[in-house]
Amino acid sequence: MTNIATLPEREFASALEAMTDEELFELMADLERRSEASDQASPTNEVFARIVLTESAIEKRFPGQMLLPYKDWKNRLDRLAPR
């Protein structure tokens, strides 16, 4: 299986449409972690560009909800994580 994070941008955007909500949210969380670990937080950064594409895909699925389904999913995971 191909790692979606390594796909060219057009293929990456197309792959987002085929993902389940869970897969999309997991990808977004992974991209956020990568972004936080990166020293290059700029609009030209590849991770940043993929975050924008992923946010757009989430907003298309949940119009007008301003990423709330993703934030709810992420909060549920945070509560389940061992401390």
Q: What does the radius of gyration come to?
A: 13 Å
Unreliable residue runs: none
Question: Count of DSSP helices?
Answer: 4
What proportion strand? Answer: under 5%
**How many structural domains are formed by the residues?**
1
Query: Can you give the helix content as a percent range?
Result: 55-70%
Number of E-state strands = 0
Question: Any overview of this molecule?
Answer:
With 83 residues, this protein is mainly alpha-helical. It has one domain. Helix 1 runs parallel beside helix 3 and helix 2 packs antiparallel against helix 3. The N and C termini lie far apart (32 Å).
Give a quick rundown of the structure:
67% of the residues lie in helices and 0% in strands. The protein is mainly alpha-helical.
Which SSEs are present, and which pair or pack?
Elements: H1 9-18, H2 21-37, H3 46-61, H4 68-80
Helix pairs in contact: 1-3, 2-3
Features:
83 residues; mainly alpha; globular
